[in-house]
Amino acid sequence: MGIVEAILLTVITAATPLVIAALGELVTERSGVLNLGVEGMMIIGAVCAFVATQQTGSPYIGIIAGTVSGALFSLLFGFLTLTLVANQVATGLALTILGLGVSGMIGEPYSGQSGAKLPQIVFPFLSDIPYLGPLLFKQDLIFYLSIVLIFAVNWFLFKTRTGLMLRSVGDSHSSAHALGINVIRTRYLAVLFGGACAGLAGAQFSLVYTPQWTENMSAGRGWIALALVVFASWRPWRVVIGGYLFGAVSISQLHAQAFGIGIPSQFLSALPYLATVAVLIVISHNRRTTLINTPASLGKSFVPDR
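Structure (tokenized):
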């Protein structure tokens, strides 16, 4: 059971940033905006969180720095696509490339340095429960924030008037505008929230997953988070299932090597991305369900005077 517990702990660590980033992108896409720059915002959040932690000695300030940097980086995407009405797909790809380049420049002086790891929050008595205690009641702050986000996003989207307005903007921005909803402002706030979540997910990489800075340490997980939103059919609870499924696949390569399973390491490293492709192929066969849940205005620009 000790081995099983260790495996589950690493799965949770690997899945947490995927769940956080995917929830942020889900809200963004529910508003009708397709932001493919999740990878860029995550890596910016990772480097800013690490640098802030190194400068202040506090990983909690690092969490704030990572979250804020991701949100600010997303505002660039928002300005280009919502104000200047640039193509969302091209802008998102450019944001990813920019984020990878800027993060490498910022993090170069810190490359290879070991950083402070975010401490665990231990709940007295509850953490002593066999098996479940260490998994649920002896985790870091970012894990608990991810749990709060799951409930908060689900409640906001489906139980509040503001969430209904956001979904209406994503389903038909013209109709929402005719009803007096400020489409641009709603989308700006959604983009800002998505960027903050991506930055927080990035902070988890450099403060929990691997407490150091390594260039390109997000390793394509931003793209997996994007695929998770489609996998979940834009439903928060399905994001959780998909996030932990992909987290398990991601971490399987490490445990397979530790157990001496004779599979090439290159194939094991490619497993998360092969799983992403496989899931997207399966989803594409059920096109009717996908179309029903997809926000109708997703990726479409809105200009009020047209």
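The first helix runs from residue 2 to 30. The radius of gyration is 19 Å.
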